[in-house]
Here is the input.
Amino acid sequence: VNEIRRDYAAAGFGDSDEASCQSASGARELFHCLREASAAKLNQVIRERNQRTAFYFDAASQEEPWRSAVEFGQQRMQL
Here is the structure.
């Protein structure tokens, strides 16, 4: 539940939708409440969370074999 609230706040949606879901007792209830409030916002929060936590393994790297997939994609776009 704390992770869901943290991710919602990080996306800038914490105050408006989360206030209407304060009575949710668990993660599943909170998820369903937030989805009912705004499925588009919840979708954006999930997408942003996935981007922040996406990693790939670079076997060629000597220093940092685990890198953010988002960072890698942005680096490739600059080439």
